[in-house]
Amino acid sequence: MKNIVEEVRKFVEEESKKPEAWWGDEFYDLHLVKVHEYAKILAKKLGADLEIVEMAAWMHDIGSSVYGRKDHHITGAKIAEKKLKELGYPQDKIEKVKHCILAHRGSNSVRPETTEAKIVADADAMAAFDHIHGPFTAALVYEKRSQSSARDSVREKYVNSWNKLNFEESKFLIKPKFEAIKLLLK
Length: 186
Prior knowledge:
Helices cover 73% and strands 0% of the residues. By secondary structure, the protein is mostly helical.
């Protein structure tokens, strides 16, 4: 059987690096790779289903790459289901991956119910701590905020992300970065 996680990774990389991808081609390297790295670390520490976590980590933002940020958890779950069916992945496991994708956004009404979904949500939030320029770009360019408004918005985003983390292991891994961000954005 082919390595389905690698097939998913390749698919996501190709979609994310297309010229029409909503976030641009850097999104794969700056965000998705980091989410995957954090998700793997947490899955191993917490004894989660590594295959489900890896696929969901790679595919959690596929909807935003293809269709844009609005409702990307919903569009992403649909894209993931279609792709995983094409790859012959079992439906019960597809549902687990979809739940992770649907629940990864802290701002939506779908709450993570499984360890795997909580891991993907945490890894998504944790990845933002590795590139502070991403949230600033969003605030300054896409939201068209002033510099002081962007600083306040980004600081609030990081505090909210920290407060929404599900696991102490997640907080332990990024605490130094969180402390530095709070100091810089005081």
